[in-house]
Amino acid sequence: MAAVVVLIFSTVISEGVSTPPRRIPEGALVPEFSAVDTTGKPFVCRRSSGQVLILAFLSSEKKRSLEAVEDIFGALSSIPPERLTSLEIAFIMQNVDNRQFIESIQEKAPTVVHILDDDQYDIWGRLGVIATPTVLICDRGGKVLCVKPGHAYDFAPVVKSRLFQALEIPYDDGADKAATVRTVANSTVSARAKRHLQMAQLLARKDKISSAIEQAQMAYEIDPNSPKVALELGELLCRAGQAQKAIKLVSSVAAQNNRDKARVNLALGWANRQIGKLEKAEEFLQQGIGQDPTLPRLYFELGRIYQQRKDSEKAMQAYFRALQLIYQED
Amino acid sequence: MRKLSTVLLIFIGLSSYALGAEKPQVERPTTEQETCITEECHTEHTSKPVIHDPVSEGSCEACHETVDVKEHTYKLTGEEPGICMECHDELSKEFVHSALDDGTCNQCHETHSSENQFRLLAPTVGDMCAECHEVAIDATHVHGPTSVGECTLCHDAHESNHEDRLVLGLDELCVFCHVTTKEELEGIEFVHEPTQDNCIGCHDPHGADNWKMLKAETPEMCFSCHEEIQTMVQASKHKHNAVSEPGGCLKCHTPHASSVRPLLASVPTTLCLSCHKEPQGVSIDEVLPAFIDQIKDKKYLHGPIQENDCGGCHLTHGSEHFRILAGAYPEGFYTSFDETKYELCFGCHERTLVQAATADGLTDFRNGNQNLHFLHVNKERRGRTCRACHQTHASDQLKHIRKSVPYGGWKDLPINFSKTDTGGSCDPGCHLAKDYDRLSAVDYTVKPARRKPRPNLRARSGIGQISSPR
C-alpha cells in the first residue's frame, strides 16, 4: 500500500495573467512544495536549493510512461556519477499501487528517485499537467528549462540535452539541435565520390593503376570541385605516365591549404619531369617543398631530376630525405 | 623421276607443317646444362610478358630436378602446393581457397609465364574467379569491385582469417570504402543493428537486381526480419497504404542510423506531410482531405501535433481502428459511455477525467469542483464524445475547443466558447448558454435568462435554418 503523502504548497504559478495557459511555461519559476515520498522520505521542491530538478508525471499503466522512464534513466546514466548528487528527481503518479512498476524504478534508477503519490492531482493541477508522461526540468535557480509532454520521437535527446544544460555539462547536441533528425546521408555527392576514391586508392596499392584511374575518374565526375579527388586522380595519371592529362587536370585545382597546394606542385613537377621539362619540374617541386616539406614524393621526384642531370650527390640527398620521411626518421 | 622427287619433298614439307614440326628438331642434350631456356629450347616458357621469377632467371632447378640426364628426364622437386610454398608463404590462416585445398595452384596460375597479371589463366581477376564462382555481373545493380572484376579488393585469393576469405572482418570491410557511412555512424545514436557489423544482412555484396543492391525490394526486405510489422501492415483492418507500396518502409525510415528512434528519416510531421499535404485516397470510396489545412496558421495545436508526433495517436503501420488510430475512439458525436471506447485518449490523459464526478487539480473544466468532462461524457445514453467540443488536431481557441461541430446534416453547429481566468462559458447549439467557474460555482438550478440570438451567418447567406439538436 502506498505511503500517505503530505503535500504542502507555498506558491501559486499564475499571477493574474489573462486566460493563462494551464501548463506551466518554460522560463517560469517552479512552484515550491514539499511532500513525503512513498518510502516516507521527505521531498522538497525549493527554488533556492541549488539542485537541478526533474519532475516526471507518469502513469504506471501507460506504455509511453514506461518508455519515458527508460529514456530518463538513459539520460541519467550518461551523467558523470559525481554530478548526480546535484539532482533532485521526483516521479509523480496517481497509481503507485503498481508495485512491479515501482520496484522496477527503484531497481533501475541510477540515483535516488522520489516517488510521490499525487492521487488527488494536487501537484498535477499546480503545474497544469494534462497528460502523461510530462517531464519538467528546472535549473539550479528553479527556472523551468523544459516542459516535455508525451513521448515523442525526440523525447530522449531533448531530455538529455536539457539535463546537461541544467547541470552545466558541455554537450555536443545543444537543446536546439536535439530535436533535429540526423541520419546517415551516404548517398550524397561527397559520399559517393569518397567511395570511388577509396576504391581507387586500394587499386593503386595493388598496382592496378588503370583500374584505379577509372575509379578516380568516376569520383572526379561526381565531385569535380573536390581538390582531394582531383589531386588523387592527377597523381594516378602521373603514375600511369599520362603527364599531359595530369598537368591539365591539376592546373585547375583550387587548392585551399598548403598540403593541397604542395600536392598540386608535386603533380605538376612529376608530370613535367616525365615530359622532359626538368627546370620547370624542379621549380614546381621546390615550391611544393616550401608549402609542405613532409611529402616524401616531392623529394623523390626531385631526386629523379638530379639523377637525370647526373648530379648523383644531390640525387642521393633527395632520395635519402624521401626515405627519412617514409620511415619517419629525422 | 624428278617430278616424283618434287612431289615427295612437297608432301614431307606439308606433313611436317601439319604436325607442328615447322622448326628444325633440336637434339635433347644428354649432359647437365646451365639453363633449360635457350634460343632453341623451351622458349615457350618465356614468350609471354608475365614470367615466373625463377623462369626469367633461368633457374629451372628451383622447381625441377633431374631424373636421368642422359634420357633428358626431369621431375618436380615436390608436389603442389608444397613446391610453391618453398618460396611463397605457407598457408596458415583459417579459411583457405578450396582450389588450394585440392593442392593445385595452377588452377588459377600459369606456372611459367602468362599474358596476364599474376600469371593468371584468365585476363582479369574477375574473369578468373568467374570460371568457378557465379557472381552477379549480370545484375542491374552491381557492386563497384564486382563490376570491374576486382574480387580481391574484398576477398583474399588464397587465405584469410575471415569467413569467405574476406580481407577484413565484416564490421571493417564495407566501411573501408564507405567512409562516409562510417564517419556519420560514429555521431548518430540509433544504429540499425545489421549496419553495425553485417551490411550483407540487407545488401548483396556482389550485386542484385534491386536498388542499392538490396537482397529484396522494400518492404519485403524489411519484413524478412520485422515480422511483427509485416503482420500489422498486412493483417490490420485499417491499412496505411504507403507502407505496403514498393519502397514503403523507406518513405519514413532511414535504413542505417538516425539520431531519433525508430530510425526515422526526418521529423515525423515532416514525413507525414510529405504525402498528407495533398488529399490522399484511403480507398476508391474515400479521399482524406489535405491534413496541412487542418493545422496551417492555427493558434493552438494538440499536444502530439505540437510535439511533431503524429505517431502519438496514429499507428503508422496499420491499425484495428479507423484512421489507423492507436486505440479505440468513437467515430460519432454521441456514444454511451464506456471507458474502453476512449482507449486512444487515455493513452495520455487520465481516465479519471471522465470517471470522477468531482475534481480539483485534474481539470480546469469544472464548476466549483464539479467535473464538467464527466458531466458531458459519462452518460449511458448520448454521452458526448471528445470531438463534440474539441478539434482533434488544431484550433484557434484555447483547449482546442471547436468554433463549431458537424451535427447530422448541420455542418456548423456553433459552440460559442469563451474563457475567463477562473472558468468560461458556452452558448452552443446543444443547450442553453451556460457559464462555469472554478472558484465561485454557478448555480445551475437557476434557469438562465435566454440570451439574445447571435447573428447567424448561414441565415444571412440565405441558407435555411436547421433545427437544433437540443
Would you write up a description of this structure?
The complex is a heterodimer of chains A (330) and B (470). Chain A is an alpha/beta fold. Chain A is 48% helix and 12% strand. In chain A, strand 5, helix 2 (99-108) and strand 6 (114-117) form a beta-alpha-beta unit. The model of chain A is unreliable at 1-19 (pLDDT under 50). Chain B folds into 3 domains: 78-211, no CATH class; 216-327, no CATH class; 335-373 and 385-464, no CATH class. Chain B contains 18 helices and 25 strands. The longest helix of chain B has 17 residues, at 2-18. Classes of the chains: A alpha/beta (330), B alpha+beta (470). At the A-B interface, helix 3, helix 6 and helix 7 of A face helix 8 and strand 11 of B.
- Unreliable sequence segments of chain A: 1-19
Number of strands of chain B: 25
**Strands of chain A, count:** 8
Overall morphology of chain A: elongated
Q: What would CATH call the architecture of the largest domain in chain A?
A: 3-Layer(aba) Sandwich
Fraction in beta strands of chain A: 5-15%
What is the end-to-end distance of chain B?
138 Å
Number of domains of chain B: 3
Number of helices of chain B: 18
| Radius of gyration of CA atoms of chain A, rounded to a whole number | 33 Å
Largest sheet of chain A: 5 strands, mixed
Q: Could you give me the name of the CATH homologous superfamily of the largest domain in chain A? A: Glutaredoxin
Arithmetic mean of pLDDT of chain A: 88
Mean pLDDT of chain B: 85
User: What is the makeup of the main sheet of chain B?
Assistant: 3 strands, antiparallel
Strand order of the largest sheet of chain B: 23-24-25
Largest interchain contact: A-B, 53 and 54 residues
- Basic shape of chain B: rod-shaped
Please list the strands of the largest sheet of chain A in the order they lie side by side.
6-5-4-7-8
- In CATH's first tier, which class of the largest domain in chain A applies? Alpha Beta
